[in-house]
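hey can u run this one w/ benzoic acid bound, need the structure tokens asap thx
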Amino acid sequence: MTRLDNNQSWTSDSYDTHARFVSRLAGEVVEWLDIKPGEKLLDLACGDGDLTVELAKAGADVIGIDSSSELLAAARQKGVDARLMDGQAIDFENQFDAVFSNAALHWMLDQDSVLNGVHKALKPQGRFVAEFGGHGNVAAIVTAMRAVAIHRGGDVSLANPWFFPSPPVYRQMLEEHGFTVKRIGLFPRPTALATGMAQWLKLFRQPFFEQFGDQMDDALSEVEELLRPALCDARSAWTADYVRLRFEAVKS
Ligand code: BEZ
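ok here u go:
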């Protein structure tokens, strides 16, 4: 079991079963990265290495970093040069042609440290290309959890521990940290949850539900029922209301 700084945890098995879509849906941001053969690439928060392997197949010489030992072990089994390093404490200097990240930056609340570390790790004119949750991401899911926390006298702040910036906000942050933004955009990307909403909630927002102790399952059902009209279709297929922020920036 991996426990992240913000008390969220998962195993590589549960991630594989309930969140495999994360790497499968990364095609467009990989296109934005536009890998040239032999380029030195840092995969920031590489997770279990599924996508890192694809970056290497495209010709990059890739190092992956992640703060989860368990996910790193899974990445190493796939042949990835995977190293234990927090994205908020990157320790490379002037080494990479590009830094890439998919579906991870929204977990890193200390963005000043992330952007300083990425800037330092890149060679001059190096690219920073990433996609993560943007403004409005999982808004219905967060609102349902907030409603249940209020109704049950719980801690509302546990419903939304993430960083989901809008393009103007993140553009300004990139510029303040020495990047020139080539392109940046916000894209709704409703995402099918093959194993359902309850599994997604348990995988990604465990600390929220743990606060209700032996009422945890009731709170979970309540969130699910609030979401059903908006995110579950007549065939009982669930969708998560994902919104992606994608950008390409250059070290200036
Ligand atoms: C996301 O990829 O947008 C995401 C994943 C887990 C929790 C919150 C957001």
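Residues 103, 106, 133, 137-138, 162, 204, 242 surround benzoic acid (CB under 6 Å). anyway lmk if its weird
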